[in-house]
Design a protein that fits this description.
about 280 residues, alpha+beta, three-stranded antiparallel sheet, two-stranded antiparallel ribbon, protein transport
Amino acid sequence: MNTLDLRTATLDDMVFEGRNKAYGAFILRRLYHQHLARASATAIILSLLFISSPLIIRWLFPPVVEAAELMVLPPTAIEPMQVPVFEPKKEVAPPVAQVRPIVRPPAQDIATQVVKDELVKPEIVKPTVTDVGPITDIETIAGSTGKPGTGTGTGAGTGSGKTDSGTTKSATPPAPFITAEVMPQFVGGNEALMKYMQKHLKYPPLALRNNIEGKVFISFTVQADGSIADVQVLKGLGFGTDEEAIRVVKSMPSWVPGQQNKRSVAVRYNMPITFRYD
């Protein structure tokens, strides 16, 4: 009779179905898997113990490490640091640059004459002054003529009376003309005058430091011989500009004198001089 249940039967049950299971082969086959599992576990444990044995020995018996000898350094003397002393810098004023002033000639009614470039710089020659004779008005003061007195004494040297036979004359310079038929002119015209002023006029350092700019109105007389005289400041700026304007005007060469009735006459002339820096 077959008592094997296939739903729960193992391979050993099927192999030993109907055979003698008591002699030991059946039991050995049934215990084979248990023995295999125990052997595998034992092999794994022994392998782990073998691999980890150095670590276990090192943990149980750690090596003795000798410490290095301590190095004793010589004492170092620390010197205090010197604090630097900074001296304040002295501000040096920048040098005052020489700025050439701009001179604007006075406006005149003289028509502008266009010439070639080579004639722009005319040579300054001394003007020819025509001798037209004295034109000054001489104020003459006539003295009274004395009459001989009558002597009353006798002999020598006792008579009285005097005789004035001469005349006393005193001359005063004539007043310059304010306007004339032909006004005086700088030799070479206004353009030459402007170049002369730009070349010789210097900006006073005091006026430059104080930012002074403007016009200085100068009045002077162009004599009948072209010379410059009686230079005056009508309206100044101060700070050395007035003195500089007077100096340059006095050092100008002779002008072409003005004329009145075809005669050279002294003419009063006004001229503004502009001090301006850019």
